[in-house]
Predict the structure of N-acetyl-gamma-glutamyl-phosphate reductase.
Amino acid sequence: MIEVGIVGGTGYTGMELLRLLAGHPQVRVRAITSRGNAGTAVDDMFPSLRGHLDLQFTAPDAETLGRCDLVFFATPNGTAMQMVPELLEAGTRVVDLGADFRLKDLPTWSQWYGMEHACPDVVEQAVYGLPELNREAIRGARVVANPGCYPTAVILGYLPLLEQKLVDASFLVADCKSGVSGAGRKAQVHTLLCEANENFKAYGAPGHRHLPEIRQGLAQIQGSDVGLTFVPHLVPMTRGMQGTLYARLTGQANLQELYERRYAAESFVDVLPPGSHPETRTVRGTNMCRIAVHRPADGDTALVLSVIDNLTKGAASQAVQNMNLMLGLEETAGLQQIAVLP
Amino acid sequence: MIEVGIVGGTGYTGMELLRLLAGHPQVRVRAITSRGNAGTAVDDMFPSLRGHLDLQFTAPDAETLGRCDLVFFATPNGTAMQMVPELLEAGTRVVDLGADFRLKDLPTWSQWYGMEHACPDVVEQAVYGLPELNREAIRGARVVANPGCYPTAVILGYLPLLEQKLVDASFLVADCKSGVSGAGRKAQVHTLLCEANENFKAYGAPGHRHLPEIRQGLAQIQGSDVGLTFVPHLVPMTRGMQGTLYARLTGQANLQELYERRYAAESFVDVLPPGSHPETRTVRGTNMCRIAVHRPADGDTALVLSVIDNLTKGAASQAVQNMNLMLGLEETAGLQQIAVLP
Amino acid sequence: MIEVGIVGGTGYTGMELLRLLAGHPQVRVRAITSRGNAGTAVDDMFPSLRGHLDLQFTAPDAETLGRCDLVFFATPNGTAMQMVPELLEAGTRVVDLGADFRLKDLPTWSQWYGMEHACPDVVEQAVYGLPELNREAIRGARVVANPGCYPTAVILGYLPLLEQKLVDASFLVADCKSGVSGAGRKAQVHTLLCEANENFKAYGAPGHRHLPEIRQGLAQIQGSDVGLTFVPHLVPMTRGMQGTLYARLTGQANLQELYERRYAAESFVDVLPPGSHPETRTVRGTNMCRIAVHRPADGDTALVLSVIDNLTKGAASQAVQNMNLMLGLEETAGLQQIAVLP
Amino acid sequence: MIEVGIVGGTGYTGMELLRLLAGHPQVRVRAITSRGNAGTAVDDMFPSLRGHLDLQFTAPDAETLGRCDLVFFATPNGTAMQMVPELLEAGTRVVDLGADFRLKDLPTWSQWYGMEHACPDVVEQAVYGLPELNREAIRGARVVANPGCYPTAVILGYLPLLEQKLVDASFLVADCKSGVSGAGRKAQVHTLLCEANENFKAYGAPGHRHLPEIRQGLAQIQGSDVGLTFVPHLVPMTRGMQGTLYARLTGQANLQELYERRYAAESFVDVLPPGSHPETRTVRGTNMCRIAVHRPADGDTALVLSVIDNLTKGAASQAVQNMNLMLGLEETAGLQQIAVLP
């Protein structure tokens, strides 16, 4: 049995890691840490796990974590970079669900995250964990930077278009919508039910931390910088994310065929039939990204609708997918859930 | 591989049967019927099943269904009773998720369901499929009447109290609350999002079809008729059900111990620690019933909080549990899902 | 123009007072206080008020408040009792939306609110502000204790039955349900959208602060102590509250007639036709209490369904109704809104 | 007192007209028609109106309607055009909340609405009822085509930019989101709470009826055809609509000043301070459009966030605003509601 640790287990991505790993056939959670809740039984805090997981929160402890085959960080930004070097030395692999290792350009990172980076060398070796883009590198990686939720939905949506250089990459518009769980489990006024329910709004229009991450990913695909307007919105629901992606076509292509071909071998990207509109609920709790591609009125606009669950493909289940790759397991192991509908 | 059929697969309980059976290790769905959608691929109607189930709806056909080991009826009341006798003759077992075989007293049945019963003899042999009450009879049954959602939550909640004759059974109050999916997937004004959202109301206060079913179940346990006031309410959410159950204590007992002991061997009833309040979301999509028992202010009122998911333990997963028992499979097979939270 | 002040204007009841008073024909808000937000324009914090109210939050200041005709306290429990004596001396009337003056029995108050009372003499002269019960006393009051939301719904629901001594008052069951706004606007994990949405649960089953308040009100009506089991539940919606009230009938009466007669002259209690189920959305944002009364299966149980909006009739609009009475205005002034549906 | 009629009063826009007109100081609803519900009291169907409106539904009758000063049509598309000519002859003014008179180009109308137009001459004289664009013409109109909800949000959002010819009008992107009430009150599966709740999706990506209407409006402003990609989405809430509007700047301007100046005299368009994100809940139930304008990263993209309530400014209250103009009343009469928050 492979043994893993989770640092920071009391937020939503930590909860989801627990659910997924409790059902993973080859993995056992050896330790889950939470300074504030050390000694509390995990299923006291999360009663949905009663009967599925017999574990207590512990204080983070490098020795215990260092004995794990792999450690997930589900911590606030800036935490993982303090502990990762020591774990790497102990031979443990790491998947960071935070943003510490996502941006290669450190001044950009510092500008958006407001601190100096603690281990630039680890940033250098870290692999951006989007398997559909970087699968082979992930297999060999010791540190994987698990992508943000918006970047996952947007990069997977634009990928075939940019790979084929079919659009004007200087004016891309990514209008994105997220359920409220993207804001995490901390107590805040603006995510109270009474504030977020029966309401819709944009946020971060002047700038959002996921913008440089998306631009980095798209630039890798396109081979050059892209011009991107990215506007996130808050949807009054718990989970689910859609990227509605616009681009002006510069070349000719059968977009439906292009997308189907590109993702034919991918287990977790599902290209819908022509004329479809993916629904976020169909991917709830799963590792699936569902995509539909349109060309409205047969004009020169490519329109891509890309949906994921922000907490799974946008965080925890993608982290498990990365773990599977890093440890040589079946890529889909533990990730075959069907969304619960309605 | 055991082969099963589903009659009436386009409603919510049919959808849930598909999800659960697609993940069941020993069962294959051979046929799913829908007159109106014959020829349609199941995953065209339910895209969440894409990649998990390769099946088309077919018109109901006694021969095909008769070759199944077991057939589930997820049909409107009054449909199953027309087809079941023929299937029984063909040697097929039946689980009816509707109400055709739930009430032993046929005049009462006719009064509440507004029709004559088509096969009184099948009613006689049918077993009421609440495993925690009738497990052995279910194992040997050829027809199981799968309980209604409210009856499941209420009977499991009162069971230990009535078995021990600890309360005044002439004045029981079951104040129940259900998510909107209990009303099914048919187009109706009062279950539109705009009608049911941000709203709370009682319904059926003058009388509800589940009342005689609950009274029949409680009378079986108590050994005599009970006086029950049952008021259902509609909660603005998709899934989940709570019975808040009140009774006046006539005897002495440690209620916590009583409940823990009674359900110690049950895989799908979870008695919470003293002082708890079960949450419907912790059982979402699962076969679990979570119960807390209180005695407010140490007075003479027993208060039981009993939650289930109305579509799973209240319908589809309980049907699978019954199937497991009827076919000699592990009772928990295919039913170990963890609720997706948040 | 009458001038009023609001102490503690940044919570939900403060917001609602602002909305209602901005539309009141005879009243002007002179001051609204918030220590933490002094200097902020009210409509910066609450953009829905843009164009309707030109006011800034100020630090609480006894002199300014003392020049108001009436001051509302929309503050945490324990705050009003520190400031009220000084305001009374200045000749200002007070409506406290908190609990400081609701319970006449001070030891009980201290037990539930965890502090000593600062001004027992003011408690003595304070009038419990349920106009349908205490209208004349309110007219003459200098301090009104505005009722809690649950007490409003429950007392109005039981009132006609207890006035007529028609039920066994030793075993009353009030099963109550509230929208999440009852928990206020402070940042807390359990009222986050992601925690409260698509979920239903009871809370406070072992005991809730509104229990002694309800019992005090019912005892006033009945003329003796009552036995009450009160269980509140959290409904996944912002506003709205229902009390589902059960009692065992001991006398004979036409309940429908009784309720219609009792409330015929009340502007804000609406008894629905026989067989009805009131919906919380029909009272949203209004001062109305809608009631239906049933006798299920013509048995000996009286069932009352009583709905209010917890933030208006359960708090802010009832406070305005009390203000109208105290200041000799038309009781319905500023309170004629129609609920916005759907 | 001015007398008005409403044809088709049982849908959401009809309900909203009733609410608004019941509170209008100078108007009385003389007749509200519904073939299917003739004889039913309005407040039996809509209990929120109990005590506010004493009226029964009647069968539509040209004579009664013809005696009204103005008649609103809140009917399915294709109904108004059958009755309007007769009413105009009787001297009655008309506001059609449907689409019968919105498009000047009749072949386009027929293509999108699937029928021949019954009265092309009335189309010709009809005025498109967006007061911020066509106020003077509305004052003199006998027939006003009340705009669709998406067109209202989008046209008001783009108006200042196009008037000043500041953007590349050949590539506009309007990413729009609507609450579910936009789909009306008819029973449909896809708008059931269980289908629409906790879900997000685009719809109509290949083409939507509001596209030609928006293009017609924008072309009027720009003075020439525009290239527009319009993608609507369904948000899991009852009310509210946002247009997130993108355009590539070709000229220089201070966008904030431009918007503030353009709308300075408008009672129902509120330009928010720089850096804002309007929330749909702040306009709920009101006639307000709230707009914020951004230029992300000081680049060449203009980003406009425009929110309305789809049932009020997007339908019923804009119809009342048009009525006020047509009848020479104060434009804001009966339209001063404050949104109920939270």
